[in-house]
Amino acid sequence: MNGSIRVTQLGKAYRRYPHHRARLLEWLLPKGKPRHQLIWVLKDISFNVAPGQALGIIGINGAGKSTLLKLITGTAAPTVGSVSISGRVAAMLELGMGFHPDFTGRQNCFMAGQLLGLGVEEIATLMPQIEAFAEIGEYIDQPVRVYSSGMQMRLAFSVATARRPDVLIVDEALSVGDAYFQHKSFERIREFRALGTTLLIVSHDKGAIQSVCDRAILLDRGRVSKEGTPEEIMDLYNAMLAEREGESVRQQTLDNGKVQTISGTGQATVHAIALLNERDEPAEVHGVGTAVTLRITVDVHADLPELTLGYRIKDRLGQNIFGTNTFHKLKPLTGLRAGQRLTVRCRFPLNLGPGSYSVATALHSNDNHLGDNYEWRDLALVFEVMNLKHSYFEGSTWLDPLIDIDAEASI
Fold first, then answer.
1. Please, which residues have CB within 8 angstroms of residue 55's CB and are 6 or more apart in sequence?
2. For 46-57, how does the pLDDT look when each residue is reduced to its tens digit (9 = 90+)?
3. Is residue 15 within 8 Å of residue 38, measured between CB atoms?
4. pLDDT tens profile 322-350
5. What's the pTM?
6. Backbone phi, then psi, for 140, in 5-degree steps?
7. Residue 386 in contact with residue 286, Cβ under 8 Å?
């Protein structure tokens, strides 16, 4: 069976009473006037996730992400609206999935598995697989209270995904633990996706959202602020993180159909950008490994004691390939005056694999744009890389090896 999710006009509100007496009076006089104020934490949330699709949910802390997942999975009741889910659901909302601290990991596996709809005999059959994937060794027969948070996450994820669900819902729980198990978990998620599992995931991990999801939703103050491709939503999310008083965040659709995000105070802006080939000419197509120059022209609109210019190269999915800036390269730009125009040239070999890439630019103070953000511009430049003269290789990076082979005599 293929799973799907339909959320319609979903909302959640809590009652706020001015004092305990008002709560008592409302309870004693149910037909009287309301003595509370409704505080909406979610309102007018609607979206569909078709069978086999993956949707990412993004938002700052307090945006309502965890509340939304609780409403979708039925662990909390909505004030208005409805949720419809088809297929068998496995949800990872909280660390431990309700594990009892005094029971062993093995005992908790049987309890958690039954909550997911598995039978006792089926869980017993799956236990070797669960133990092997969790990799917690002899701790499987120790009380869960002695587990670290990472061990609890390993076991909870192993149980939840022991049988491929029709719908998999994952909160930030996977951010707990070591990098090895995070990679292992997302590899299993990708396998499930390839087999048709519908995925709903909440994460601040840009790479995870962009590599796994088809679409993404940005939640802001309990409402859907934007829905679109993972790349454009993550760009907008990053811009909102840097938003300060006096800054602006705007999006515009480019000729190629992609949505560009620009944020900042505007005290300095990129006037022009080009990727130059070996003949020092602007070009949109470059060969693997060729020498290129990224030329960026900056206009200064206000007196600035310091300015950092940074750039970031992304692949077609919006995942970061490389980034640096003048601060980290010890090339400070100081004492700038309004009306100045700067031209910065960055030279490097284009050791990228064939494909489409984009360049994001950043103008700010200090080492990153979370301080004084003058301008952050995603999709400032788009270019293609083609393999024109090298032997065939795979991947996004050109790492040409020198291969030595020692052939020993037969023994």
1. 5, 47, 49, 199, 200, 201, 213, 214, 215, 216, 217
2. 999 999 899 999
3. yes
4. 999 999 999 989 999 999 999 999 999 99
5. 0.71
6. -60, -25
7. yes
